[in-house]
Amino acid sequence: MQVVSLDLTNFRNYQTLHLDPGPGLNVFVGENAQGKSNLLESLYILATTKSTRASRDAELIRQGTGLCRLQAQVNRTTDLDVKMELAISLVEKKQARVNGVKHTRMSEVIGKVNAVLFDLGDLEIVRGEPSNRRRFLDLEISQTSPRYVHALAAYRKTLEQRNHLLRDIRDRRAGPHGGETVGVWDVQLATHGAALMDGRRAFIDRLGQLASETHKAISDCRDELVITYQPSFAIDAIGDVEEIKREFLTRIDQVHHEERARGTTLIGPQRDDVQMLVNGADSRLFGSQGQQRTIAVALKFAERQLIEELIGEPPLLLLDDVLSDLDDLRRGHLFEFIGKAGSQTFLSCVSVRSFPPDILERASVWRVSKGLVTRQPE
Ligand SMILES: Nc1ncnc2c1ncn2[C@@H]1O[C@H](COP(=O)(O)OP(=O)(O)OP(=O)(O)O)[C@@H](O)[C@H]1O
Ligand SMILES: [Mg+2]
Q1: Which atom, in ligand 1's list, is nearest to the CA of 368?
Q2: 3-state DSSP assignment of residue 85
Q3: 2-114+315-376, what's its fold?
Q4: Residue pLDDT, tens place only, 305-319
Q5: 0.70 surpassed by pTM
């Protein structure tokens, strides 16, 4: 899929922008705070309708104005070409148009354009708390599995109600039958919990394999990445989802007293983690900055590959500030990888000095300065 034109009006620090990106690698170079990340963000929003950086849509609207518009013409090979338009206003609901047809339900427009974004926040998947890794799993698996979306919503609801009751029991606020009522939630908890665990296991198996391959290539075969699922109880020897459910119920029974004393659910996907070992050492604790960034990038390339397999054409690849912390060797391999991946790529950086000349020659290079973007050399 290829963005052939991008138009922004009053988006972030862009008053108006018109850009005709090149088909392969597009490099956006500029000093800090000029609008490089904003530009990549706009493409991500056109694909997903949401930003990963803004907590409220209002932040996206250029200060002093009340309405921003984003528009892209995206040519696809496996589907109809898409003209995607988004209008975000301070007073009205967000509105999208796909090939001129209005949508106010954002779920209807997600997936018309597909993009994978790497930004600094993604480093938290590697070095942050387990909740960061769970959020990553949920986000990625949800994109391709409606079953998972359903299980996730049902599990969260059940967990909340069960925890509420357990807290009441701990604090002696539950009635005389409170203890028995907890059990009513157990089967639901185990059913949806097992579905999530099964989904996460399968996803990590596939993603881990792809990420390891990328990781090996970028690190010049020096680092071996092994990604494993770490659920709250082991399921390695368990084949199917029904068996996981039975094991779930057994385990929950074993912590019966402890759960009531502590007032919370002690078993289940809310306690999952993903372990990332580089050469046998936990990268969260022992990884260097460059190693951690390499893993985060490898995860994104793996995700890119998975999406391509699913939709049958390469999604857009948005790489924000991906090069810092990487040595020249890793950068070189990363460029090779970008070339091989075949996605139209948007990459931001503060300087192109260390770029391999042949890469620069083939790329479209753009200078970003105070919300203006100009093709280099002019
Ligand atoms: N809603 C908004 N209205 C006006 N300006 C905004 C808005 N949101 C962000 N900005 C401005 O955009 C600029 C930051 O842009 P961006 O994050 O794209 O920088 P960058 O070029 O990626 O810089 P760096 O190299 O530091 O990552 C800041 O000057 C910020 O004040
Ligand atoms: Mg930036």
Answers
A1: 21
A2: strand
A3: Rossmann fold (3.40.50)
A4: 999 998 899 999 999
A5: yes
